[in-house]
Design brief:
Layout lengths: L1 H6 L10 E5 L5 E5 L4 H24 L1
Antiparallel strand pairs: 1-2
Length: 61
C-alpha cells in the first residue's frame, strides 16, 4: 500500500502543505498543514466579537 501512495501525484500539488497518509487498510487520508479558510474566519470572527464586547464594557464604566 505504501508503494501505491508514492505513485499518486496531484496536479499543482504542494508537498509542503498537503500530504497523504494511511487512514486504515482500505482508505487514505489527504490532510493539509494549513487550516481551511473557514477556520481563519471563525478565529478572526470570535476575536472581533470579543474585542467588541470588551470595548462596550470598558466604555460603559
Amino acid at each position: 500500500m505504501r508503494d501505491s501512495l508514492k505513485r499518486i501525484e496531484f496536479e499543482n500539488h504542494d508537498t509542503r502543505t498537503v500530504n497523504l497518509r494511511d487512514y486504515n487498510k482500505n482508505y487514505w487520508e489527504i490532510y493539509a498543514l494549513v487550516p481551511e479558510p473557514s477556520t481563519y474566519g471563525a478565529v478572526f470572527g470570535g476575536a472581533a466579537v470579543t474585542l467588541l464586547l470588551y470595548h462596550r464594557r470598558r466604555r460603559g464604566k
